[in-house]
Amino acid sequence: MITFETYEEGMVIQAIHTGSFDTEMNPFKKMDDLLISTDFQRDWTMEKYAHREIYLSDFRRVTEDKRKTLLRYKLKS
Prior knowledge:
77 residues, alpha+beta, 3 strands
């Protein structure tokens, strides 16, 4: 399911990834595919980050298969 919400940092596309950091490319690929199929574009002018990873789980305490990470791209307004 895809939902659109507004955040203080502006328009973003994001996904929650569950699992190993080694497989984070899967949701990034889905986000890239969605952008290709829409009129939205990534904001590549961001000097601070190309994408944002927000760790919802403490990787020191949670098994690799249950780690949750919020992955986010900033979009052009």
